[in-house]
Amino acid sequence: MKSLPTFALCALVLALPACSSSSGSTATTTDSGATTDTDTDTGTGDLDSGDDAPSSACGLKASCVATDKSCVGLVDNTGLTKFGLRMSEIDLTSPPALTAGIFHSVFAGSTGLDLPVCNQNATGTVSWLLQFDTTAMTLKLGGAKPVATPTDGYAFVDAMIGGAHVQPATFSDVSPDAMGRFAATTGVDLVLPIFLDAASTSSIVLPLHQARISTGTLSSHNDCIGTYNAAGLDPANSCTPDSTHPAFLDAGSLEGFMTLEEADKLPVAAINQSLCVLLSGNATMYGVPSAMGVTVCKRDASGQILFQGDWCSTTNLAASGGCADASQLRANFAAGSVKILN
After folding, report:
1. Quick one: which of 35, 86, 188, 224 has the fewest CB in 10 Å?
2. Judgement on whether residues 297 and 247 belong to the same structural domain of the protein
3. Which residues of 167-205 are buried (b: 16+ CB within 10 A; e: fewer)?
4. Domain count, the chain
5. What is the pLDDT of residues 309-334, one digit of tens each?
6. What band does 141 get if pLDDT is binned at 50, 70 and 90?
């Protein structure tokens, strides 16, 4: 498994002049998943018969170990009532400090698989899992630690990390319809991890409140949410995804919010700042050293955090009327089938 490159820690400090900027991939969420050059749900992808050559320049070869090449799904979920997927692309659209620049690029480069045989050349350290149980009508959402071999499967994390209890949350009354469309609209509390290295020794935790899946569409075999973007990748750039050529086309949306007070109690050890300071996007303006040596958010004379978020925790709506004590997280995502071990 690849670890993040040496610029990754620099990348987290958005204001450092030594860090150059590039955007992560962004794709449009659709109900059905956009059509690509691959054969959907058959597991044959866009292969030419009889050889290892794909029919498009960035298509997957026959040597790719994915069972469902339309989304690089690693297991066959056909007919299963309990099955899992891993988010293969997570396109953050909020909060602003995490949606552009080098942090976003590093995050995008961590969510894809480390599986070069299937055109997947990310570090694979960020794994957010979805586990459906269509009999119980539940959907479990949580994070997993990095794995050396993606085909061996993933396990939900249930542990204290960075001062927070990271564990999966379960949504009830989730039932995909005949077209595979589903939603988990009753918000839950959920802490999602972002692991920055293969050994899972460096991480960021995101303590979400009112987390929900606002929309999603499963493929007919339950292997995919969205599709691998073979036709949309640029062969002149070695089929490497970028801001205009995403690796996957999204078909799901996730949202929730983080309170600034809670975020200020969670250190991001890699940059010696609290999560609150990271969310502010400007440590010079909003950060101040603490007695513990960690830069935390500045406060006014009454003890209130000076940085104003874009969300209000009491209304679960956009900040207004003097309530701006939270930051909203929104993301579109694609996912492919994996084995979930717990």
Report:
1. 35
2. no
3. ebbbbeebebeeebebbbeebbebbbbbbbbbebebbbb
4. 2
5. 999 999 999 999 999 999 999 999 99
6. very high
